[in-house]
Design a protein that fits this description.
By secondary structure, the chain is an alpha+beta fold. Among the domains are: 67 residues; 97 residues, no CATH class; 155 residues, no CATH class. Helices cover 24% and strands 27% of the residues. The protein has a six-stranded antiparallel barrel with strand order 1-2-6-5-4-7. Strands 8, 9, 10, 11 and 12 form a five-stranded antiparallel β-sheet that branches. It is globular and about 85 Å long. The termini are far apart.
């Protein structure tokens, strides 16, 4: 045993272990570095990409966002109560347009104070509004004049009904007159292989005696249309002066609502600001500018601010109006119910509304007078899910329990909204009651119509809130359990 250990010790002297161990350690370190270097380079590549990507992507994303940018204006057209509403709607000159909201960048803005220069952008002359009822188009209203009446901006304009637009598209086009004064009146046939009539020498007609030489004849007097076109021919196209610049052209980021008619389209809009100023220069009128009034690029308003005449005791009626430069589809939001379904749903919502009014009257020891409940019910399919949303507005008289029969009643007003569930039951979404004594605290809600205020193909409910002497507009979106208020405009005198 001792000899074996001595032999191993002697034999190990020829094979030192330390160098071999260091060689293995050096080899393992090199292999580890060789395996780790691609990972380290990958980290560097990812770091450089993370730094440069935010600098490259915004340019492409900005172009996409600019193409997707959308702006939509919502307004109401006020009409006398005696005007019948149909496809061949004829509006009087006293009609006026109220701007409500502008939807841009996923937010609602008050249209009466949005981009005022010097009038709100939603009421600029030349803006075209699609007037609708229950989501269906009734015609186009083009703004011509805008003014401020008291504390509200109003606009008047030109009306074209949907029936007239359809009739104009179906009407045959009139033939274009062709002048034959300077051409040969003989008919010609084009033969195959022959030269065109333009390349053939024109036949010289027989000379006619003239009292004066041709060279001495004066130049023909231009017509008024040709004379009006001469300044445009002399001016360089595409380079209007600084005074003729349209605000939308000088500011590329300024949103626009004006719907420009495409080539061959029957829809016509009012001329642009540049065209109106050029027309004013051709027909100058002496205007004495007032001292201290700064001039602006917006042309002067045509005529005074629109003012409505007295309508007697009748309340005015309102139609919703949409102005959107992006193409969109229109469809009816009316709920297609049958006669039996209408009777069942009407009875159900009236019963719920009467229960709400009874509870409200009991708080002031009053009761609902007999035969004074006058409801108005409309049914919509706001989300196109075959579930009806019903809107009830009603008025009733409340009497004191122990008051004499000849005492004046108190008028109460209710706005009640429900949704039909899949089971057929009605779920309450909204209820608001007020009376004549509390109109200054809680105004009466007058339902106007269902309208798509943001262009997502889902309709909102538009209301007009009436105070003793004021009015405002607000609209809601119908949720599963309640109405969500999306916008409330400022109050104005009525």
């Amino acid at each position: 045993m001792i000899a074996l250990l001595a032999y191993e010790k002697r034999f190990a002297s020829f094979f030192p272990r330390a160098p071999r161990c260091y060689a293995l350690a050096a080899g393992s370190r090199a292999s580890a570095l060789a395996l780790r270097s691609p990972v380290r380079y990958l980290y560097r590549i990812l770091a450089v990409a993370a730094i440069t990507l935010p600098l490259v992507v915004p340019s492409t994303c900005a172009a996409q966002k600019k193409a997707r940018a959308r702006i939509r204006a919502l307004a109401v057209l006020e009409l006398p109560a005696t005007v019948p509403i149909d496809k061949d709607l004829k509006i009087p000159a006293t009609a006026r347009l109220h701007a409500i909201s502008i939807f841009q960048n996923k937010t609602y803005q008050d249209a009466t104070i949005y981009y005022v220069n010097p009038v709100p952008m939603a009421l600029e002359p030349g803006t075209v509004y699609d007037v609708q009822q229950n989501g269906e188009s009734l015609g186009l209203f083009t703004i011509e004049s805008t003014g401020k009446s008291k504390d509200d901006w109003l606009a008047s304009g030109k009306w074209k009904s949907a029936a007239s637009i359809v009739a104009a598209k179906k009407a045959p086009s009139s033939p274009v007159p062709v002048s034959l004064q300077d051409t040969d009146e003989r008919p010609h046939l084009k033969h195959g292989g022959s030269a065109s009539p333009a390349s053939q020498p024109a036949s010289t007609p027989a000379p006619t005696p003239s009292p004066t030489p041709t060279s001495a004849q004066p130049a023909p007097t231009p017509t008024p249309a040709e004379a009006a076109a001469q300044p445009d021919q002399q001016a360089t196209p595409g380079s209007p002066s600084a005074g003729d610049a349209d605000p939308s052209e000088s500011d590329p980021n300024r949103p626009a609502l004006r719907r420009r008619a495409s080539a061959g389209s029957e829809e016509s809009t009012a001329p642009t600001q540049v065209e109106r100023k050029r027309e004013a220069e051709r027909k100058p009128e002496p205007v004495t500018p007032e001292k201290g009034v700064a001039t602006s690029s917006v042309p002067p308003l045509k005529g005074p601010a629109p003012v409505l005449k007295r309508r007697g005791q009748g309340e005015p009626q309102f139609l919703v109006a949409i102005s959107d430069a992006t193409a969109y589809d229109t469809h009816s939001y009316k709920f297609p119910w049958t006669a039996d379904e209408k009777q069942r749903l009407t009875d159900a919502i009236e019963k719920q509304a009467l229960a709400e009014l009874t509870a409200y009257a009991g708080k002031s020891t009053r009761v609902i007078a007999a035969d004074s409940f006058t409801p108005s019910i409309q049914a919509f399919d706001l989300d196109y899910d075959n579930d009806a949303e019903l809107v009830l507005t009603a008025k009733c008289a409340l009497r004191k329990k122990l008051a004499p029969a000849k005492s004046a009643p108190l008028n109460a007003y209710i706005t009640y909204v429900v949704r039909q569930e899949s089971s057929g039951d009605l779920r309450k979404l909204f209820s608001e009651i007020t009376d004549d004594d509390h109109m200054d605290v809680i105004g009466k809600l007058q339902f106007i119509d269902a309208v798509d205020a943001d262009g997502d193909s889902h309709a909102e409910l538009l209301f007009r809130r009436l105070g003793p002497t004021t009015q405002s507009f607000e609209f809601y979106r119908a949720g599963r359990d309640q109405l969500w208020k999306l916008f409330e405009g400022a109050e104005s005198s009525r």
